[in-house]
Amino acid sequence: MSDHPEKFLLAGVMGWPVMHSRSPMLHNYWFEKHRLKGHYVPLAIAPDGLEKALRALPALGFAGCNLTIPHKETAMRIVDDVDDTAKKIGAISCVTVRADGSLSGCNNDAYGFAEGLLEACPDWRAEAGPATIIGAGGAARAVVYALNQRGAREIRLINRTKGRAQALAADIGGPITVLGWEERHAALAGASLLVNTTSQGMVHYPALDLKLDALPSTAIVADVIYIPGKTPLLEAAAARGHRTVNGLGMLLHQARPAWRAWFNIDPDVTREMRELIEATI
């Protein structure tokens, strides 16, 4: 950083739509905290413009960008290099512009999920008991990868379309049992962790149809959604006495490795930053 005191640092998030993203708020908080001249901007990029937009990053002076729906899979075919984690998950969440102008892609979502869960529940251990995961999309792939990396011994994967869950299990591997949608209620028996990775319960979406009766009281209930901060699933779990974790921690913590790659800085996730974002949800 000190080599280029005159350089204005730039990064952003590409999505379609993107203006709802809280990423600019959290990254610009860090620019201010670290007294850096720079800005993080939302970039509304339609799917057919993604390649041109990514290839323009070096010329525009961007250090890199994050990717959100619907670009995470498509971008893998555009960047010059993809790291092993992203290859396994099948999506990239972060692009870094290297010194020679080439683009490298990585996926920080698995890291973000595990770190967010540990921040909320420091005693959580992946090997403590079975994990039940609802959904088989991009977020589910990151969650399953994170659980595998941390030594999970049993992952029960449930999706409305069983074939999609089977494809995830084949791609990522590990101790995954794929169960049918009708088995979802019974699949909570004995679980130590329940994670909703679907859009069910998000603002404007119906609640997840899941009965928690079989879930042990000691189980942690997590949702990758952070708008609203308490989904119907988390409200129902809290009413039963479960510890609950929403998706905000995942969002905040996945941003840290991006800063390490872009600016060689390891920023902190602070209570002040979390409260700043929570106030807008």
Secondary-structure topology with pairs:
Blueprint: E1 9-15, H1 23-33, E2 38-44, H2 50-60, E3 62-67, E4 81-82, H3 84-89, E5 94-97, E6 103-106, H4 109-120, E7 131-134, H5 138-149, E8 155-158, H6 162-172, E9 176-179, E10 193-196, E11 220-223, H7 232-239, E12 243-245, H8 248-263, H9 271-278
Individual helix count: 9
**Beta strand %:** 15-25%
The gross shape turns out to be globular
The total beta strand count reads 12
What level of helicity do the residues show? 25-40%
Secondary-structure element series: EHEHEEHEEHEHEHEEEHEHH
The CATH class of the largest domain: Alpha Beta
Task: Give me the Rg, rounded.
Answer: 19 Å
Distance between the termini: 33 Å
CATH fold description of the largest domain: Rossmann fold
CATH structural architecture of the largest domain: 3-Layer(aba) Sandwich
Quaternary state, please? single chain
In the predicted model, the low-confidence regions spanning at least 5 consecutive residues are none
Helix-and-strand structural type? alpha/beta
Mean of all residue-level pLDDT scores? 96
The number of domains is 2
Largest sheet descriptor: 6 strands, mixed
Question: Which sequence of strands runs across the widest sheet?
Answer: 2-1-3-5-6-4
CATH superfamily of the largest domain: NAD(P)-binding Rossmann-like Domain
What labels would you give this structure?
281 residues, alpha/beta, Rossmann fold, 2 domains, six-stranded mixed sheet, six-stranded parallel sheet, 12 strands
